[in-house]
Amino acid sequence: MPLTVEVVTAERVVRVEQGVDVLVAPGSEGQLAILPKHAALMTTLDHGELIIRRAQQEDTFALTGGFMEVSRDKVTILADTAEAAEEIDIARAEAARVRAEERLKRGREQSARDVDMARAAGALQRSLLRLRVAQRRRRPGPPRV
Question: Is the pLDDT of residue 120 over 90?
Answer without folding.
Answer: no
